[in-house]
Amino acid sequence: MERKKWRGQFDFIMSALSYVIGLGNLWRFPIMCYRNGGGTFLICFLVITLVAGFPLLYLECCLGQYGSVSVVSVWKVVPLFQGIGWTMLVCSWSLAIYYNMLIAYAVFYIATVVTEEEPWKTCGHWWNTASGITQMGNLRTEMALCLFCCWVLIFICLCKGIDSSGKAAYITATVPYAIMVAIFTRVIPLEGSADGVLYLITPKWELMVQPKVWCDAAVQVFYSMSICSGGIITLASYNRLGNNCLRDAIIIAVADCLTSILCGVVIFAILGHMANNMKVSIDAVLSRGAGLVYVVYPAAIADLSMATTWVVIFMSLIITLGIGTMVRTQ
């Protein structure tokens, strides 16, 4: 039976953008920049994207489009490599297990912030202090409900195959940009934001010769562009044979790089403002907790006027990015 095709010309591009642009851009990229010399890592990231990321992305687009089969079946062209397809499938399954939990956290934060006091402003609840790894603790019913709602939302997006997921992609691929631009225009004028952006773009040239920086940049490129995870091959398999996959690959690669940079600017502007308020360095801000997205950023935004609105907007960004990736992963 002939494989179903995308209805519109831009369905694949929107779906692919929704897939590759996710929490890796918003969360992991700024952390990697901080750990590897800011501008130094940015240069390495762009170089590896050009010499490795884009060619592999283009190769996967071609493989999926001209194979027009699933990520497992496409590797039958080289029987020796059929295990690659199954490995990609396992990677996607593994991603789906934990990725939806991150979305559920954001849903929980929105539900909490509109019904009661923001959870990051106080430390008076018993579950804020762990008893230890030997005690599992009680079931958090509200978190389980949030997780269930996330799975229901993903089911709705996938219930009619690429017809419904293609339409959902226009939302999950465009809304995050609108939110990021809104947050960008709000945080850039803040005091100390320029210091944060300067911290991001200033290279430490002595780190350019460190293999670890280049390795981290390569990992980030593969993680950010979702290369070798099977998603791009699957999405491209629904393209028509005459589709210009080179154009699509260029658009996806450029959009991913620009999105990572935009996220980095927004995040470091927030951190710069937070460091200015706390009278400490940005290094001290980043070392104050592991919950970077769910603790540090909301705490910084909480100092703004209309803080509740901005926290809801920020968490909505996490939800749309996560849902977009999850829908395409399935």
UniProtKB/TrEMBL annotation:
Any GO CC annotation of this UniProt entry: plasma membrane
Signal peptide: none
GO molecular function, one term: metal ion binding
Residues the entry annotates as binding Na(+): 25, 224, 321
Protein's UniProt keywords contain Metal-binding: yes
Coiled-coil regions, chain positions: none
Localization of this protein: Membrane
A GO BP entry: sodium ion transmembrane transport
Keywords (A to Z) from UniProt: Membrane, Metal-binding, Sodium, Transmembrane, Transmembrane helix, Transport
Protein name: Uncharacterized protein
Protein source organism: Ridgeia piscesae
Organism taxonomic ancestry: Eukaryota, Metazoa, Spiralia, Lophotrochozoa, Annelida
